[in-house]
């Protein structure tokens, strides 16, 4: 018999699963926010991406640039509505404005802010169309539910898969945050299946986050400003 989770517990479990998947496969170091004062954000943190082609890494410059991540997680059975895109646009503008008014200096290695939408259910065509035409840098990821818990320990610890990943021109286009230098490609596993992967100038991007606090900067330094 499988235990049915409450709506709150289901949402919390999805946030935690999303956080782990993004750290293990997409070079994101995030933390859960939650609560009444979360400002419409479930996960907050950084996305660590390769240096641009005209940058050099040394003992001072980090091996990655970072993008501020504002993420919302939706663990719903119904398909993901375009209303969530409109809601996230408002959240993004609010956070970006608050950050600019705080007077915080932006590190050279910080590219900007991305709005990340994570869903257990599929995105509708209307949702993708809305995100595609948005001026806000959007990344949408479908994370299907993992296999049901069973007596098999390999299944119990499974995080599930990344079903699809989609970004709009404001993020991945030539004039977007990523300057057209990265793309998402479907990578097939030898045994079948697969997942989206990040590629930069035709090379697979290896997963990397600053595990050691002193390695560059604390991943969450100035994150709430």
What are the defining features of this structure?
225 residues, alpha+beta, six-stranded mixed sheet, three-stranded antiparallel sheet, 5 helices, 24% helix, 26% strand, globular
**Low-pLDDT residue spans:** 55-61, 151-157, 212-220
Q: Give the termini separation.
A: 46 Å
Radius of gyration: 18 Å
Instruction: Give the strand content.
Output: 25-35%
| Strand order in the sheet with the most strands | 1-2-3-4-5-6
Compact description:
The chain is α+β, with helices and mostly antiparallel strands and 225 residues long. The chain has helices at 7-25, 82-101, 125-132, 153-156, 169-172; strands at 28-32, 43-50, 64-74, 110-119, 138-142, 164-167, 182-188, 194-200, 203-204.
Task: Give an overview in words.
With 225 residues, the protein is α+β, with helices and mostly antiparallel strands. Helix content is 24%, strand content 26%. The chain contains five helices and nine strands; from the N terminus they run αβββαβαβαβαβββ. A six-stranded mixed sheet has the order 1-2-3-4-5-6, with helices on both faces. Strand 3 (64-74), helix 2 (82-101) and strand 4 form a beta-alpha-beta unit. Helix 2 (82-101) runs parallel beside helix 3. The chain is globular.
């Amino acid at each position: 018999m499988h235990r049915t989770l409450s709506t709150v517990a289901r949402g919390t479990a999805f946030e935690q699963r999303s956080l782990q998947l993004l750290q293990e496969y997409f070079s994101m170091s995030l933390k859960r926010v939650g609560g009444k004062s979360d400002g419409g954000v479930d996960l907050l943190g950084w996305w660590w991406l390769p240096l641009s082609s005209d940058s050099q890494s040394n003992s001072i410059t980090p091996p990655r640039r970072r993008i501020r991540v504002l993420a919302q997680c939706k663990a719903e059975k119904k398909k993901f509505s375009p209303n969530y895109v409109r809601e996230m646009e408002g959240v993004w503008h609010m956070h970006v404005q608050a950050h600019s008014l705080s007077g915080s200096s932006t590190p050279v290695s910080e590219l900007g802010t991305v709005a990340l939408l994570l869903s257990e259910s599929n995105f509708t065509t209307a949702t993708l169309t809305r995100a595609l035409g948005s001026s806000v840098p959007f990344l949408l990821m479908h994370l299907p539910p993992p296999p049901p818990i069973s007596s098999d320990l390999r299944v119990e610890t499974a995080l599930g898969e990344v079903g699809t990943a989609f970004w709009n021109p404001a993020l991945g286009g030539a004039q977007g945050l990523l300057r057209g230098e990265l793309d998402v490609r479907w990578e097939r596993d030898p045994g079948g299946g697969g997942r989206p992967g990040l590629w930069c100038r035709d090379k697979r991007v290896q997963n990397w986050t600053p595990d050691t606090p002193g390695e560059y900067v604390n991943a969450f330094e100035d994150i709430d400003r």
